[in-house]
Structures are given as C-alpha cells and as structure tokens.
Amino acid sequence: MPTGVYKHHKHSKETLQKMSKSRLGKNKKPREIRICDCGCNGTFECKVDSKQRFIWGHNGRGECNGMFRNTGKAAWNKGLTKEADPRVAKYGKNGGETRKRNGTNKVIGEKNSKNIKKLWQTSEYVAKQMKSRHVKPNKPEKFLTKLLQKLFPNQWKYVGSGDFILGGKCPDFINVNGQKKIIELFGDYWHSEEVTGRTEEEEERQRKDLFAKYGFQTLVIWEHELKDISRIVSRFMEFCK
Question: 3-state class of 66 per DSSP?
Fold first, then answer.
C-alpha cells in the first residue's frame, strides 16, 4: 500500500503486528501499519521509526475531518454523519466547493481590489510603495536629467523615485526654481493604448488635468521623441521661458 493511502478497517493489534512484520517499503526499509489515535479505528502505513500517530487530517481531540491525502475527498463522502463532522451541517455535502460556487471568493477579491485602488490615491501610500520598491531612474530619465541640468542648471529635480507625490501620482521632474511646472516622461509601452486603454492624447490630457487641479503646468515628453534632440530642446525652451 503506497505511502499516504489509508483504509478505514478494524483490525486487532495481533493482526496488525503480523501484517507489519511481513511488509517492506519500496526502498526495502521495514514499514508498519498503525491504528489512528483519534479514535476513528482507521489504519495507516508508515515507517517503523516514524512518530506519526494519526491519519493525515485527523487530530487528537476525537475529531476526524476525513481529509485524505491522495483522493482529496472529505469525510461526508466516506459515509460520516453530521455528528462526526459538523462541517456537513454548515456547508453541505460538497463542503468548500459550495463556497466557491456561491461567489464568496469573488466578492472578497473585488473588495480587496477596491481597497487597494483607494490606497493608491493617497500620497503617503504611493510614496511608501515607491521607496520600498527602490525605484531608480531609467536610461531615458537619466538622459533627460543631464539635458535639463545643461539647459537649466539647478532648476529641475528628478523626483520619480517617490520624492514628490501629487494627486496619487509620482511625476518625473519638478521645477525647484519657484515655478509650479512638471515634466513627465511617458514610456512608449507603459503609457500606450494597449496598456491604458486610452490614446496618447487622452493619456496626456488625463495627467495634465490631474496636476492642473493643484496649480501645476505639465509638459509630457514621449520616449520616442528623444530621438529628435533639437525638437526636445525647443519644447523645453518654450515651456520654461
């Protein structure tokens, strides 16, 4: 009998001792058959030096939940009554499957999703998440940092690592020279219509409108625009004049 397969049969101790002496495992090590200590009179096979006293899923309080390692079937499928397993009265004959069918897990998942979305609208939570994930500037952001420093020394600061949160969003660059202006660098993939479900114009407008509520002007630069440096410089000069 393979390890983990149990049969609920009543045997005398003498019969069990005889059966144990004649059995060897696949690795040629002696095994024995024991009676479950929970009082269900079931038997199980284990190593001779094993400390196992119960059938898997049974316990020492006289309660047998009837879970079987290989079959996964519950106690009520083995003919036990409501008195033997109180879960039958609570969940019916299909136990946990009933809860899955009634959509309990789905409702819990939806509630958790709504709560997480609310948290991402708070500046404290967003800043904590950004710092805990050790967000660092990527290559395009490093390039823009050097370009802005060259064109406007000490006027712009990279805050995309979570140093500045506005309306639940973390902008990339903010003006530190007294002007309420922001520069956003949008990645071609993460801000694409395929990911956001919005066109480039709609994506830009949404971010600009959000920051405008707090009195900030926003310039959006797309990743593919970095190929034309002269155009980027002219846009910066016009925006920062």
Answer: coil
CB of 61 closer than 8 Å to CB of 45: no
Cβ within 8 Å of residue 71, ≥6 positions away? none
Give the end of a domain, one of 71, 86, 119.
71
Q: Which residue's structure tokens are 């949404």? A: 206
Distance between first and last Cα of the chain? 84
| Residue range of the domain that includes 224 | 135-240
Number of domains in the chain: 2
146-186: per-residue pLDDT in tens? Answer: 999 999 999 999 998 888 888 888 899 999 998 999 999 99
Residue 208: its H or E element:
helix 200-212
- For 34-67, the pLDDT digits (tens) are 888 777 777 888 888 888 888 877 765 544 544 4
